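Need tokens for this chain, all 114 residues.
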Amino acid sequence: QVQLVESGGGSVQPGESLRLSCTASGFTFSNYRLNWYRQASGEGREMVATISGTGVRRTQLRPVQGRFSISRDDAKNTVYLQMDNLKPEDTAVYYCNFPATNIWGQGTQVTVSS
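Here are the structure tokens for all 114 residues:
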């Protein structure tokens, strides 16, 4: 079965860090672009960061630039999103996406609250 499974979400306080993981099964995503998106309650889904098949990274979302970083480990078929200095406005469900086939993970909840 072809799928993406996210993990690593949780509830943290402002200023703390989380690392999200997204692992593919049923296919190999080496050499392909991968994306992280997020969707806050009542809002649309927005792209957070993207990484090319050759490892070129871009943090797309201006409010998280300098705090979030995307990376990949093709040997583990996994893409990561390192999130530092989290803020309450980062609260959302985070999704990974394999755009070549439009596959999405089920999402992982991140809640930032004091």
